[in-house]
Amino acid sequence: MFSSKLVSKLGEGRRRPFLLVLALLASILVLLALNGRDNVKDVLSKGGSWGKPKETSKSNLKSLRPNHLKSLGNSSLGFEKVFVVSLPERSDKQDAMRLTASLTGFDFEILDGIKGVSLPPKALPGEFKESPGKNNVIGCWRAHMNFANTIIQRHLSTAVIFEDDTDWDVGLKSQLINYALGSQYLSGHINNPSHSPYGDDWDMLYLGHCGNSPVEDDDRRFVIKNDPTVPPAQDRQNFAATPDMSSYDNHTRIIFPSKGGVCTYSYALSYRGAQKILYHMSMSVYSDPVDIGYRNMCSKKERNFKCIAVFPQLVDSHRAAGSDIKDSDIAERKGAIRAKGYTPNIVHSTRLNALNLIDGETSTIESQWPDEMPLQGPIQLSWSTT
C-alpha cells in the first residue's frame, strides 16, 4: 500500500532537478520530429492464439525502424482515437482530464458514462449478482461495451480509453515508444511491417490496471532496464496478482503476453478485439464486472483473444486532495479528507506537476519519491524467452 511515510514525503512538496527524465524528454523531441498526420487506416488482421514463442535475435531490434513509431507523437498517442469515459455530471473530472491531456500533448473525446438504473432488465445479457453497488457495476459494464460498439461503428482500427480519474507520468509519450516496441515484438512484427506502431496482431493492450498476470506457457518478455519512471518495488500498489519480478532489478519494466488483469484504468482495443468483446460480453450470456470479463477474455485460450500488458503500469487512478467521496462513481467512500493528492505507481505525476508544466518549469519536476537516487546511463532494451 502507499505508505504513510511516503505520503508524508509528498506533503513536503519537495522538488529536485529533473535529472531522471532527461532521456524521456529527449525521446519526446524525437517523436515530435517524427510526427505524421496519418492515422492507421486498416483494421487489424485476423489471427489465432499466441502459439509458441518465436526465436528472435537481439540484432533484429534494428528492424523496428523509427517510421513505425512516428504516429506516437500525434494527438491520439498512435491510436486512431482516444476516449475518456465519464458520467456527464462529473465536469470536475473532465476538467482535470482535459488539462492533463493537454499538458501531455494528446486530445480525447468524452464517452458518456452510464448509470445502471437507466438500463431495463431486458437490455442486460444476464443476471448480475445482487449487491449494494449492482447498478454501478452494470453501468460500468455498459459504458465499456459502448466503447467497443463505437470502435465498430466508426470502423476504427484501434482506440484507447482512459477512465476519468486517471494519471500518468509526464513522459507518457516517451514510455509509449518502448511499449510499442514491446507490443511489436510480441505480435510478431520484428521483421514485418505493421500498420499500427503497436503491431497488428493483438486484441487488447493494457496501459493501466491494478494487477495483471502473464500467460503461463509463454515466457516472452520485452525488458526495459534502467527506467527512471519505474516506482520503488516496496511502494507499488496493486490489488491482484502481478508478474514475478525477482529476476530483475528495481528499475525494470516489462511488457508481456497477458492472461488478464483487474481494473480498467486504461486499455486499447483493436477492431477485431472490439468485435470479440461484444460477442462474448453482450451478445452472449454475461453477468460479471467488466474487468473480470476482460480477464476471462484474455485467459480463455479458446477465445483467441490476444492481450498484452505492461508492469509496472503506465496509468493509474489519481487520489485527489479533499474528500474521498469524489474518488469513485462505482464504490462508496466514507468521506475521509486527504491533505494531498497522490497517484500510486506513477513517479512523475502529470496531475501533481500540472503547475510546473503550465509555467514551463520542466527543469524541476516533482517526483513522488524524491529521495530515490537518480539513475545513471540510458534506458536499455532487450527481449528474451526465458
Descriptive account of the structure:
- The chain is α+β, with helices and mostly antiparallel strands.
- 25% of the residues lie in helices and 16% in strands.
- It is built from eight helices and 14 strands.
- The chain has helices spanning 4-11, 22-34, 91-104, 134-153, 172-186, 271-283, 290-299, 354-358, and strands at residues 81-86, 109-112, 158-163, 166-168, 204-208, 212-214, 221-225, 253-261, 266-270, 307-311, 315-317, 322-323, 337-338, 380-384.
- Strands 1, 2, 3, 5, 6, 7, 8, 9, 10 and 14 form a ten-stranded mixed sheet that branches. Strands 4-11 form a two-stranded antiparallel ribbon.
- Helix 2 crosses helix 5.
- It is globular and about 60 Å long.
- The model is unreliable at 1-60 (pLDDT under 50).
